[in-house]
Amino acid sequence: MADPVFERLALIGVGLIGSSVARIARSRGDIARVVVANARTEATLNRVADLGIADLTEIDPARAVEDADCVMLCAPVGAYAALAQQIAPHLMPGAIVTDVGSTKQSVIRDIGPFLPQGTHFVPAHPMAGTEFSGPDAGFIELFQGRWCLLTPPTGTDDRAVSKIRTLWERCGATVSIMDAAHHDRVVAIVSHLPHLIAFTICGTADDLADETRQEVLRFAASGFRDFTRIAASDPVMWRDIFLNNRDALLEMLARFTEDAQAMARAVRWGDTTYIEDKVLRGRKIRQALIDLNQA
Amino acid sequence: MADPVFERLALIGVGLIGSSVARIARSRGDIARVVVANARTEATLNRVADLGIADLTEIDPARAVEDADCVMLCAPVGAYAALAQQIAPHLMPGAIVTDVGSTKQSVIRDIGPFLPQGTHFVPAHPMAGTEFSGPDAGFIELFQGRWCLLTPPTGTDDRAVSKIRTLWERCGATVSIMDAAHHDRVVAIVSHLPHLIAFTICGTADDLADETRQEVLRFAASGFRDFTRIAASDPVMWRDIFLNNRDALLEMLARFTEDAQAMARAVRWGDTTYIEDKVLRGRKIRQALIDLNQA
């Protein structure tokens, strides 16, 4: 077996992502010699202990990061600034701080300023998830065949980037490095806007007159059902994502709304060519995804 | 085995739905003694013959309906008025005309006026589908456990309604009867609007600058991927559905757009409570669907 990438990995947050990393690290042995789990409540840490997915549990984030050569923030991104402030004075020299947040410019803005000289910061975004959350939701295969995007700021230590890359590759992900601003635009359209739309349409249905609403639930065709699958996600996590990728998300929503209005106009005036063209473009994108093995 | 519901069933169109009904009728034997398939092209009919899913094939719809005690329109709803005009003079006395279209007021408007005295009209909407189309796409299990909604106009012969109900129950569906206008509003929100949104967001992504578009395809997270699954549907069928459920669809889109703008405003101004509330409502609807066994 290869040597572990890290001696001591501190996971700040053990929800779906954090607990999956913990499970993988414990089962493989080549990611970290010791896994420390931190969570906001004793109840969560007791559950982590019961599940046996960490070597140590610690309720105080400042103590959890002591002696850790890698600290991975796995909390909702809105909590990052306060967490960074808490843990920064306790980081050991040379420690690598990384995260798993879905927004990257905000993470660099919120964490970067607190980190002491001599520590390294490698923001990461494993693109994997389910609609479930909490320490019970994690599983070893979560990252298999999925992307993990790293967005290290200019000047980040190459060795630190390389170690985080190895960690995620050992978790089963394919790693790609990109600029944080570019990352935020891409995820705004592929993930954040679809979630905003899914949450919204569920609310629109819920606002219908009571008789119709009951039948919406009864007759949910595949279209609506797929939307609710997306919509069944963690409220705090998504609130933080929306607020922390605001500019890109609002731009993509504005583009989408213009396009939806153009489609509405085509429906109103019977512009058959326009409608068919849009449906065909949907098929084309679908086919491209299938060709890229993403569908 | 029970007696067949019909002596001779004429399917006008043998795409996903029509060819599934044909397969079921041939395999069960208690739906129709003879299945006649009609399509617009000889190529499709040759394929139907090769697949062995009909007893007879006939390129002329007027001849296909001769001696049929049940005629089922399985073409895109935009073709119904012309088809009704063609077949009406050739319907046998007492024949039941039915259909499988996703819009019901338009179908009653387009078919009703052409049908001669002494024939019956029972509009139907089996709520089942996949993203595939054509005679090869059909399969025997398509309607198992799915809803089929009947919207017979006031005064429709009870025996005719009962026979169409039996046909769909033998296809595996659960039948419910409702008013056509109510039907159109329900499907506008559960199916037509989600499809319009899915087609639109694929176009929005396709319009992005080339570099971003490539990465959209590369990194399509589960959100976007689910949308493209919906979007990979038949362009003519969906064009016709949008145009023939225009009023209900535009109303639901207007409601959705208002709600999306309210969400955008909450994101812009950091209204955390509003955002969390919307995400929680999505979860609630999701849970209601699970409780109803639709998820």
Automatic annotation (TrEMBL), chains A, B:
Pathway recorded for this protein: Amino-acid biosynthesis; L-tyrosine biosynthesis; (4-hydroxyphenyl)pyruvate from prephenate (NAD(+) route): step 1/1
GO term, biological process aspect, one: tyrosine biosynthetic process
SUPFAM superfamilies xrefs: 6-phosphogluconate dehydrogenase C-terminal domain-like, NAD(P)-binding Rossmann-fold domains
GO molecular function, one term: prephenate dehydrogenase (NADP+) activity
InterPro entries: 6-PGluconate_DH-like_C_sf, NAD(P)-bd_dom_sf, PDH_C, PDH_N, Preph/Arog_dehydrog, Prephen_DH
Enzyme Commission (EC) number: 1.3.1.12
Superkingdom of the organism of origin: Bacteria
Prephenate/arogenate dehydrogenase domain span: 7-295
Annotated catalysed reactions: prephenate + NAD(+) = 3-(4-hydroxyphenyl)pyruvate + CO2 + NADH
Keywords: Amino-acid biosynthesis, Aromatic amino acid biosynthesis, NAD, Oxidoreductase, Tyrosine biosynthesis
PROSITE patterns on file: PDH_ADH
Family annotation (NCBIfam families): PRK07502.1 (NF005694)
Stated family: Belongs to the prephenate/arogenate dehydrogenase family.
Designated name of the protein: prephenate dehydrogenase
